[in-house]
Each structure stands twice: as C-alpha cells, then as structure tokens.
Write the structure tokens for this entry.
Amino acid sequence: MSLIIKLKWFIKQRWIHYLIGVSLLIIANLAFLIPPRFIGKTIDQIRSETFTADKLSNSVILLATLSCSLYVIIFFYHYLLFGNAIQLEKLLKGRLMRHLTQMTPSFFQRNRTGELMALVNNDIPFIANIAGGGVMTLVFTFIGTVIVFVAMIVYVDYKLMLASLLPLPLLAYTVSKLGVVVRRRFKDVQEAFGHMNQHVIESISGLRVLRSYVQERKDIEAFERVTDDVMKKNMKAAFTNTLIQPVIMTVVGFSYVIGNGYGSYLVFHNQITLGQLITFNMFLGLIIWPMVYFGEFVNMLKQGSASLERLEQSMEQQPDVVDANELVPVSVPTSIEMKQLTFRYPGASSDSLRNVSFRIEQGQTLGIVGRTGSGKSTLLKQLLRQYIIEPQRLFISDVPIEQVALDRVRSWIGYVPQDHLLLSKSIRDNIAMGNPEATDDEVLRAIELSCLKEDIEQMSEGWDTIIGESGIMLSGGQKQRMAIARALLINPEILILDDVLSAVDAKTESLILKNIRQQTAGRTTFITAHRLSAVSHAHWIVVLDQGQIIEEGTHEQLLYRNGWYKEQYERQQMEALSEGKEAL
Ligand code: ATP
Ligand code: MG
C-alpha cells in the first residue's frame, strides 16, 4: 500500500482522470448487479405465474441496453486508467534519464549499463502498471466487493451473506503470506534480468574481440548460465504466484458451498424465495472476479514495490560533484592553474596525480606527455569536474573551480576523449552533436579542419552515411578525426585533446595540428600525446610519471635537459627516419 502512497503525487496530478475513471468503474459495478436481481425476480414471477409477454420483451430490451452501455463504460474507464499508466511510464523514464545525465563516472562504475536498462525497460513499466491496472483492480476489489455485499444484504439475506463470508479471512491470510515471498522472488528475478542484460550488451559490443580470441563457445555457455539463472528465478516466482490463484478459487468455492447449502435451507424454510437464491448465487459469481483480481493486485503491488525499490536506489544516488552554494561568476577562462593537486580515484589504492602544478594563460597550449598510465587522462578529467577534488587546488581565472558553476565550466570545454564515443547516426549528426543547429557551412569547416573531407567524399552517401554502432564502419583514424571535428564545431574556449592523433599518420597529424592552432588562436588548448611531435608547439609541456611532474618546460628547454623527453624525442626521430627509409 505504501507504493500507492508513494505515487500520490502522480494521482494528484491526474486526479480528474482518476475521478472520472473510478466513477465509471463504480457505475459499472453497480450495473453488474442488475442482471442477477432481474433474473431472480423473473424466476419468482414465473413461479407465481405473473410473468407476461410484455415483461419478457421489456426485460430483453433492458438487458440488451445494459450490455451496450456497459461496453461504453468499460471502454472509457480502461482508457482513462491505463492512459495514466502510460503517462507515468513516460514521466518516470524522463526523470531517470535526466538523473542519469547528471551522474558522474563513479555512479556508472557502481551501476552497470545492463542494470540501468533493466530499470528503464522492466522496472518502470511495472511501477506504471500500478497507476493503471493497479488502481483499477484495487477499486474493483474493494468497492466491487462491498457493493455486492450490500446488495446481498438488501436483496437477499444478511445471514446468508455472513455465512458465505466465513472463508474469506483465510484468503486474506494466505494471500498476504504468499505476497511476501512473491515480492522477494520478483526482486531476485529483476536482479537476474539486469545481469542478463549486461551480458547481452557486453557480448554484442565485444563480439569482434570474442571471435578473434575464439571465445564464442565459452561466451555462449556463460550466457546459458545467466539465462538459466533468470529462468530458475522466474520459475520460482511463477510457482509462488500460481499458488495464489488456486487459493482464491478454493476459498470462493467454499463460499459457493455454504451459499448453496445454507441458501437452499433458507428457501426450504421460506425465509427467502428461489429467485433470491439464484440472485445470491449470481452475486457470488460477481465476487469471484474481484477476488481473482485481488490476487493479481497483490502480485502487481509486490512486483511494483520491488521495482520501485530498485528505481529509488538509483534515483537516490546524488552526483558526486554538485554546484557550491555560493558561485563566483566567471565570464571567460582567462587562465587555468593547478596548485599542488593530488588526486586518487574513488576506491583506488594509490594516487593517480601527485602534487601537480602548472599555470597557463588564455590562448596558450599545454602539452602533457609521459608513459602510459602516468596520469595524463586523469589530469585532463579534472577540468571536466567528473570527480571531487580538494578545494583550492584548481583555478579558472584565479577562481577556485569549485566556485564556478558546473554548467559554465562544461560549456567552455570541447573535450575529445581518448576513447571517443560515436553514435549510430550519420556522420553529420555525429559531428553536430554538440551543436545540432550548426549550418552546413560550419559543419563542413569542422570537417576540413580535421582533414576528414577526402574520407567523407569517398563514402557512398557522403556525410549522410550512417556509421554504424560506435562508428563500426570507420577506421581508427577516421573515428579520431570525427571526434576532433565535433569538438572544433562548438568552437570551445578550452579544447581538450586526449591522445586523439595516435591513429593518424605523422603528416596528417601535423596538418590537423596546424589547422587547430589557426582555428583556436586565442583559445586554451590541452593536448596529450605519445608522439612528442604533437606537443612540440605547446607553450608549456609537462612530463608525467606515476602522477608526478618529472620535467617541464618548452620543447626547446626540455630537449636541452637530458631527461625522459629528450630521450623519447630522439628515439621517435630515429624511428621516423628508419620508417621513411623503409618506405623508400
Ligand atoms: P595512457 O597513455 O595509456 O592513456 P594515461 O597517462 O592517460 O595513460 P590515466 O588514464 O590517467 O593514464 O591513468 C592513470 C592511473 O590511474 C592508472 O594507473 C590507472 O590505472 C588509474 N585509473 C584510471 N582510471 C581509473 C578509474 N576510473 N578508477 C581507478 N583508477 C583509475
Ligand atoms: Mg590516457
């Protein structure tokens, strides 16, 4: 029942739909009483030989009109109440989506994609079901039953009604006991379903890798275990679920036995007429449905509560990084400074950045290099504010970043991550993701700047070509350049390029970098790379090792020092030279 209370806000919002729907439902329940009463009376009239041809035709007309009216009434209350369920589903999905877009990476580390998808596709529909079918059954069960009970007392006999009610407490007891088990089992089912979803996502997206490692059979076996688990849990839930229905039928059966036995006794002793007994029997028939629905309602409610619990668990999780109470307005990022920043990922056992300091002014470029795993991407992510950092360590325009509005910071940034994300849309739509209103000329310019023009011209449908899921039909270098074009299109104040030129050849790399330098003159750029030629033009270069800056300076200064940078640069020059020779 607490579930209904939790949905109060929605019922309030759509009260008019509920009011009309429930009123029609009550009218229908009252109308259901007419045929039994009518037939009982007719039988009594036949017995007392007062039934005439006129009465017969009247009753036929009345019953036919009643059936037609009931058709219309039932249609409308179904329409109104189930319409509410559809509305709630849409609302909740929207809320969840908004919530998910605010979440930072640690949330997605805790909640896997498959489980979040199960929330959208399974749990939310179950919850919404309560707002439609649930409310309908609730009213049908309680009001429908009360109406029939009252009719039994008024039109037949209260003793007979009470006697036939005797088995009902047994029903309430068993259903509530079984309900607890049903709820627990449904929760297990939902969890197993989430795991299965995750497995499907990982298998499909990683199919190429699975195949190349000849792991398909193993994966199929693992998947079978997962589906087996879902099946077993479903069977268990279905088992308890199916126990409820027979219990109801048996209890109602007992009511029939009492109703008929004791009823016949009353007829025999002239306390009620034969017609009344038949009416009573038909009334009992009317009770069966609310009772059966009651069983379903219990299931629905338990299923819905299990789902709501899961949804609430997700919705309650707050984003790690939120806006401070007092924000300082910053119009443009005139400088970016890090002061002895140390950072550790949540749950990690060692720091990924240690005492990192640098300062760059607007329009300058910071190059970040270092061995793999040295913390380059981690450093860039600090600007995106995906994780909580110590206050007073990172400054934009000399204001601590935690006092600048999150939206503001993110609106300045054009971020090209190391693992680029492409959607299965057209090339144009992918590039225009950050600015869907961009004109064709603007998109074309971004394409030219990132040296993608020729590649696109060779595609069958130009920039309208759909690039498949995660850009499956593009080469690694094409994907990287698409991601660059996307960032350039929004003409950001701060451009962050995380190892985005690793898959293009040296010539294209230098062309793109030249274009970027021209396009982003006056903008601040952060660039990480393994190939040092990509950062050689930077105003300042930092070399990271195990999260610490071990060398820093301009390209020339670093070459002057006999450190990692110089050694790496010379090695790369030699390699380039020998590759050039091989190519000849
Ligand atoms: P590469 O050149 O391979 O891209 P990188 O210099 O960008 O490497 P980072 O991705 O910044 O390296 O990683 C730095 C360290 O932080 C690594 O030791 C890595 O294992 C760790 N790390 C990265 N992401 C996470 C995370 N989400 N949770 C915990 N540790 C992480
Ligand atoms: Mg990286």
